[in-house]
Each structure stands twice: as structure tokens, then as C-alpha cells.
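Q: I have two molecules that I believe assemble together. Could you output C-alpha cells for the complex as a whole instead of separate predictions?
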Amino acid sequence: AQSVTQPDIHITVSEGASLELRCNYSYGATPYLFWYVQSPGQGLQLLLKYFSGDTLVQGIKGFEAEFKRSQSSFNLRKPSVHWSDAAEYFCAVGAQGSQGNLIFGKGTKLSVKP
Amino acid sequence: DAMVIQNPRYQVTQFGKPVTLSCSQTLNHNVMYWYQQKSSQAPKLLFHYYDKDFNNEADTPDNFQSRRPNTSFCFLDIRSPGLGDAAMYLCATSRDKQETQYFGPGTRLLVL
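A: Yes, here they are, computed for all two components at once.
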């Protein structure tokens, strides 16, 4: 069955520290991958996406993610976290050739300490 | 500039009283999606329209219906809301299938 796993429900980091949010997927077809961020009471904002090509993708707000097919992972990273990055982060996977439906992970809530 | 607009942002309804949520887009995208997101959970796809073709997810309750009168607008109708239908409802659009989905700000539904 198709699934997306974000193993960390809640992460707290200090402002200025580096960040890595984990995402693993199980998908039979060639995936395309997204990271979205959601602030409280808001919709989802696209951070970055991977469809093909270079496996290291750059996104908005200084985020990047690396697709590793051998590990079925698409981890999100940021070298220096800002207090405004506190939010919930969702990894999502779609299958090429599908109807376009996305499967979302359960999300990782990021808290930032001053 | 707002690209995917949802109205209202907050909706309070009574148990069993029909309610309609609205989504509009200025992107001229072919596909429009409706997701339900309950507290501290991932968004769950209810259905989507590819142009005028309606695609219902297998586990979407019959209580949920949708209409897309034109390219720009899509509505979510909940015929008889129950307490369990209280959630954030997210609308998204994409130019075509398998392309990036852009989300609106959501409508938070409260059922009394």
C-alpha cells in the first residue's frame, strides 16, 4: 500500500540551529515529491518539489530537500532556523501516471526556541 | 495576489443543517481538489474535478457532494453535517494531473 511516513511528530530546535525533517515513502510507481508548510489556521504553502533531474532541490525560505531513491527518502533541511519557521511541515507523494492524488504524511510540528 | 480563495474562512453550522463551502481560483487550472483535515492530522482527499469530470474517493461519505459550475469555482456541499465533520476544509488546484497543487487558506467548519 502507498504510504508516507514522517517519523517525528514534534521537533524543537534553537533559533540559528540546523534542521532536518525526515520523510520516507512507500510507492510502487516513480514518485514525485513535495514539502508543504502550514501555519496555525492556515492553508498549505508549497516549500519545494521534486519531479525529476537533480536530486537536491532548493525551495523557498532557505529550505532544501534531497531525494534518495535507495532509501525511499525525501528529507527536508535548513542550515539555520528562524523563529518564523515554527509551523507544521507535511511531506506528500504522488505517483507519475496516476490521477494526481497526493498522499500526505501525518506532519511534523516544528517549535523554535529563542 | 490571492490565487486560490476560500469563503468563508470560518463557518459555524448546526447538526444536520446543510452547509456549502466555496472555492475560487484565478489560475485557470484544470483540476480542483477538496481535502478534509481534522485536528493534528494530514489532509485527506475527498474528491477532485478534472475539468468537468468528477472523481470521488472511495471512502468519501455520501454526505459530501461537490459542484463545479465553471473553471473558476468549486463548491463543497455537506448535506447533513455531523459533529465528526468539524474540520478544516482545504481547496487546491493544479494545472493538470500530477502537477503541483496550490492550496487555499482553508475554511474551518464548526458543527454545533
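A: One point stands out. Chain A touches chain B at residues 32, 34, 36, 41-46, 49, 90, 94-102, 104-107 (CB under 8 Å).
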